Structures are given as structure tokens and as C-alpha cells.
Amino acid sequence: MTKDLYTVLSSTPDCIQIQLSKEDHPIFKAHFPNNPILPGFLQIDIISEILEDKITTINKSKFISHVCPNDIIEYQIINKTEDKKIITIIKDTIKISEFTYESK
Question: In order of start, what are the domains of the chain with their CATH numbers?
Fold first, then answer.
């Protein structure tokens, strides 16, 4: 589902920066036509894919602002435990999303 949706620009253990694809990607064409935004569940799927985490539970999620085609976003990662993470998504130095999940 996320094939060709993003490119990793930089990566450290606690911060991953990506750039999203252009608006001609099928995800943006479907969600929503003439007003493309990245669905919240894909914000979570992308980081779980990059970290190779198999999410078992999403404990909390808050989506504050839109993520659009071509956006550069930064995932800030806090490991509470080996299998529990808090993720904050930053765009242009502003927090736009936050979620907590557990994984195997």
C-alpha cells in the first residue's frame, strides 16, 4: 500500500525524516480527489514499516493538521519500552500528529 508513497531523507534511532510523493500517487488520488491528504492510518503504517514493527495495539492517536503530497515530515520516536513507542510527527517545526502504539 505504501509503495512509492515516501522517500526516507534521513534516519537516526530517534528521528526519521521522509518526503511524501507527489499528488499523482494512488493514495492521494483516492483520499480525497481535489483535496489530497495522507490518511491518519497511513501516518502510522509508514513508521511501523520503516521500523519493521508489527503493531498490536494503538493506545492513543491525535491528528492535528493535514499531511499533504510532497510534504517533508519528521517522525520523532520515544521508546518507552522495547515494545511500546510514542511517535510525534513534525512538519515545519510544528507538531501535526502524535500516537502511541505497542508492537511485537
Answer: 6-103 (3.10.129.10)
